[in-house]
Design goal:
mainly alpha; 4 helices; about 0% strand
């Protein structure tokens, strides 16, 4: 977020990339993903991504349990 603000503050992209040790493509990806967001919005987005990842994992575990139960019942 700080890097994006520095670029908006008229710091040339190549110079900022050199300071951070990232490529200019990375900076443009950051801008596409986080451009126009505030720090609080980014932290909330990361929380939601973590929750989404956790829910997907829970879903897959339950789906696997259901498949195992169906296989067990089919054999009986």
């Amino acid at each position: 977020m700080a890097a994006l603000k520095r670029v908006e503050g008229e710091l040339p992209v190549p110079e900022m990339c050199r300071e951070l040790g990232v490529s200019s493509a990375t900076q443009y990806k950051w801008r596409a993903k986080f451009g126009g967001m505030y720090t609080s919005m980014i932290s909330r987005m990361k929380e939601l991504e973590d929750e989404n990842r956790r829910l997907k994992k829970m879903y897959l575990e339950e789906k696997l349990k259901a498949e195992i139960a169906n296989e067990y019942l089919a054999k009986k």
